[in-house]
Amino acid sequence: MGIIEDLKHLNQNTAAAVAIFFLSFIGPGFLILYVFKPHLIDSLDTFKILIFSGALSAPSFIVPFFVSVIIDVVLSGMGKMQRGQYGNYAEWYFKHGITNCFNLYFTVFVSYFGNYRFSTFCWIMAILLSITIISEFWTMINLIRHPERKISIFQDANR
Prior knowledge:
This protein is an all-alpha fold. It has helices at 2-8, 12-36, 38-43, 46-57, 59-78, 89-114, 118-145. The longest helix is centred in the last third of the chain and has 28 residues, at 118-145.
C-alpha cells in the first residue's frame, strides 16, 4: 500500500521523467539485447541487464543532448542569444528522450523484422542520429533568425 500512496503524490514532471527514462533507456536496451543477444537475458541477473540496457541506449541520447548544450554555450558566448534561450536541461532531457525512444524502437523493429545483423542496426542508428543532430542545427538556425519564435515543450505548462 505504501508504493501506491507514493505514486499518488508524484509530481507530473517527475512521473514523465521516470517514464521517459524507462521508455527511452531501459526498454529499447532490453529489446536490443533480446533481438541480438537473447542468451544474455537468461544468463545475466536483473541488475546487470538494467545496466547493460541503459548502456546500449545511452549513446543515442547523450550525443544530441551534448549538441544542445554546446549550441547553447556557444551561441550565448557569441552574444547571439542569452544563456538558456535555446532551452534548459529539462527540455533537452524530454526532447531527446522522446526522440531517442522513437529512434531506438523504430530501429529495433526494422532490425528484428528485417532479420538484420547488429552492424546494420548500428548503421541505421547512425543515420537516425545524424538526422537528429541536423534537426538540432536546423532548430538553432531558426532560433537565430527568429528569436521570438522560441518553442518550448513546457510553454503551455508555464501559462
